[in-house]
């Protein structure tokens, strides 16, 4: 017998692969905001949904190969300090 599930119980699971850059960004966001990585992803999904509904997504690359144009992955530790 366990705890009863809440109204919005989290019963769906996803497994995804991240690049080193994506993992770095996720880790830094979680540390900066004081959230778990899962919560950062959940909040990001809600934000993306809101922006999509309100025409707020402008300039996002249509094909995956071009998403390097929008990254913020620092190449050195000095750049890391400037970004975060």
Topology order in helix (H) and strand (E) letters: HHH
Strand share of the residues?
under 5%
The low-pLDDT segments are none
Rg value = 16 Å
Distance between the termini: 44 Å
Decide which structural class fits the backbone.
mainly alpha
Main pleated-sheet profile:
none
Level of helix content?
Answer: 40-55%
Description:
- The chain is mainly alpha-helical and 84 residues long.
- 45% of the residues lie in helices and 0% in strands.
- α1 packs across α2.
- The model has no long low-confidence stretch (mean pLDDT 78).
Summarize the structure.
With 84 residues, the chain is mainly alpha-helical. It is 45% helix and 0% strand. The chain has helices at residues 20-33, 37-53, 77-83.
Keywords:
84 residues, mainly alpha, extended
Q: What topology emerges from the helices and strands here?
A:
Blueprint: H1 20-33, H2 37-53, H3 77-83
Helix pairs in contact: 1-2
């Amino acid at each position: 017998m366990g705890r009863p599930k809440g109204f919005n119980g989290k019963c769906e699971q996803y497994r995804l692969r991240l690049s080193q850059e994506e993992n770095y960004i996720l880790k830094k966001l979680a540390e900066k905001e004081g959230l778990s990585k899962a919560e950062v992803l959940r909040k990001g999904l809600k934000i993306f949904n809101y922006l999509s509904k309100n025409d707020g997504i402008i300039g996002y690359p249509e094909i995956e190969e071009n998403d390097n144009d929008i990254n913020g992955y620092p190449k050195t530790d000095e750049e890391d300090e400037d970004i975060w």
